[in-house]
Amino acid sequence: MSEQPVIDRTAVRWGPRREGAPLLVLLHGYGSDENDLFGLVPFLPDPFTVASLPAPLTAPWPMPGRSWYVIDELERRDPEPVTAAARAVLDWLDDDARDAPRILLLGFSQGASVALQTLRLAPERIDAVVNLAGYAAPGDLPRDPELREARPPVFWGRGTKDDVIPHALVDHTAQWLPDHAELSGRVYPGLTHSVSEEELADVRAFLERRLAEPVEDADGQVGGAPGV
């Protein structure tokens, strides 16, 4: 059995730390790094504290950047490498985000699959997920029934010209997400395996709705939304 992957804490890129603000964690795609998704921050609502994580694996030569799991697993549809990467994200949250009042995940491609898997492993810790050009890993996890009951908010955006994610995984995600989440999102005509400004406007609206939601404290009392 391979070692559990670990996030390099020294490589995490942070935005301004806003006391009491929700934490938005960015999970980049295959062959990229923690700097990539920071280009999206100007399009997102201000009240978040933002942290962009580096994937734990080095992408195989000659691909630059990093990966969350070996890309071949995408074709084999083996969920365990995605689960291992999600555990690495949870371990990082234990170490560096224990005091965050709310945690939301935004991932692209591989990073989106890891974001959804993290939600599945610890639904009580993740408030919402933004899935950009990603997919839900196949297979069942022990806490999936909790998601089916709780229906946490998930945004899913993908393009009609995205030829990177296999059709079988897109079809699986299209069936799995509505059954386990309060799903919103769009299919963008002509968009490839990328993100458009139109999509980012939809993501911003989705996140603003999450910011406006009341929050329960540890005693189950409802209070105002933090950071607003």
Order the strands across the largest sheet as they lie in space. Answer: 1-3-2-6-7-8-9
Distance between the termini: 45 Å
Indicate the mean pLDDT: 91
- Our Rg estimate from Cα atoms comes to 16 Å
Helical residue percent band: 25-40%
Can you give a write-up of this model?
This protein is an alpha/beta fold. The protein has a single domain (9-223), classed as Rossmann fold (3-Layer(aba) Sandwich). Helices cover 31% and strands 20% of the residues. It is built from 6 helices and 11 strands. The chain has helices spanning 72-76, 80-96, 110-121, 144-150, 167-180, 197-211; strands spanning 13-14, 23-27, 49-53, 57-58, 66-67, 103-108, 128-132, 153-159, 182-188, 215-216, 222-223. Strands 1-3-2-6-7-8-9 form a 7-stranded mixed β-sheet, with helices on both faces. Strands 4-5 form a two-stranded antiparallel ribbon. Helix 2 crosses helix 3. The longest helix is centred in the middle third of the chain and has 17 residues, at 80-96. It is globular, with a radius of gyration of 16 Å. The model is unreliable at 218-224 (pLDDT under 50).
How would the blueprint of this fold be written?
Layout: E1 13-14, E2 23-27, E3 49-53, E4 57-58, E5 66-67, H1 72-76, H2 80-96, E6 103-108, H3 110-121, E7 128-132, H4 144-150, E8 153-159, H5 167-180, E9 182-188, H6 197-211, E10 215-216, E11 222-223
Parallel strand pairs: 2-3, 2-6, 6-7, 7-8, 8-9
Antiparallel strand pairs: 1-3, 4-5, 10-11
Helix pairs in contact: 2-3
